[in-house]
Design goal:
This protein is an alpha/beta fold and 121 residues long. 31% of the residues lie in helices and 25% in strands. It is built from 4 helices and 5 strands, in the order ββαβαβαβα. Strands 1-2-3-4-5 form a 5-stranded mixed sheet. Strand 4, helix 3 and strand 5 form a beta-alpha-beta unit.
Length: 121
Amino acid sequence: MVSDNDVAGRPELFIKERFVDGARVVSVRGEIDHDGKDVLRSVLLSGADAAPARLVVDLSGVPFMDSSGINVFVAAHQAVSGTEGWVRIAAAQEPVLRVLELVGVDAVITCHPTLEQALRP
C-alpha cells in the first residue's frame, strides 16, 4: 500500500506491506505526524484480528515522528495483545528511537536495531 497524502509540499508517507516468515512487515517512509497518522493506523490495525497477529514495523525510512505515531503504535499493540500476538519496531532512526524511549514505548513494544533481528522468534 502506498498512501497519497502529500500535504503542502511536505514529504508523503509511503507504506509498504509484505509477509516474512509468518510476520506482517510494514515498512514506512516519511514523517509520522498528525497528517499521516490515520493512514498508518488503518494499515497497522488492518491485520490486528489475525490470530496471533505478528507485526514488525520497519522505521528505517522515518526521520521524524511525533506523539501521533506513538498513539498509533500503542493502539496496534493493544489490538494484538488479545490475540497473543506482538508488535515490534525495527531500525528506528536515532531521533525516532529517542522519542520512543522518552515516553516509555520501548518498554512495551520491543525495538530492534535491524529488521532481521525484529523478525527472529
